[in-house]
Amino acid sequence: MSILDDLAATIAARKGADPESSWTAKLLSKGPEKCAEKFGEEAVEAIIEAVKGDRARLTSEAADVLYHLLVMLAARDVALDDVLAELARRQGTSGIAEKAARDRG
Q1: Please, what is the Cα angle at 88 between 1 and 33, to 5 degrees?
Q2: Domain span at residue 92?
Q3: Distances in whole angstroms, Cα of residue 7 to Cα of each of 1, 43, 48, 70, 94
Q4: Fewest Cβ atoms closer than 10 Å to its Cβ: which of 16, 30, 61, 84?
Q5: CA-to-CA distance for 25 and 13, rounded, in angstroms?
Q6: Between helices 55-75 and 3-14, what is the axis angle to 10°?
Q7: Distance CA 68, CA 21 (A)
Q8: Number of structural domains found in the chain
Q9: pTM of the shown model
Q10: Cβ neighbours of residue 66 closer than 8 Å, sequence gap 6 or more
Q11: Which CATH number fits the domain that encloses residue 17?
Q12: In which pathway does it act (predicted)?
């Protein structure tokens, strides 16, 4: 198991936890929209650090982005394995060709 698998499992386990006992449970209790908003905020912070060129801060913000992405997915009952399967399906396909196929569909 990877650290992302471990983190996704921890997030799933906290879905029903007391919001006062866990930041993850508190965030999930606010609903999918709030989880998406928080993911967006973290993504913007990562973008800012990427533009500034601060590797340490970008690394930290990227970890926040991955965590909040997993929370957002959990809020909508999308499994990490489903996302990984989609990436595997796309592997070896040109990004240009893959996007064109999505645009036609």
Answers
A1: 75
A2: 3-103
A3: 10, 18, 25, 8, 30
A4: 16
A5: 9
A6: 50
A7: 18
A8: 1
A9: 0.86
A10: 4, 7
A11: 1.10.287.1080
A12: Amino-acid biosynthesis; L-histidine biosynthesis; L-histidine from 5-phospho-alpha-D-ribose 1-diphosphate: step 2/9
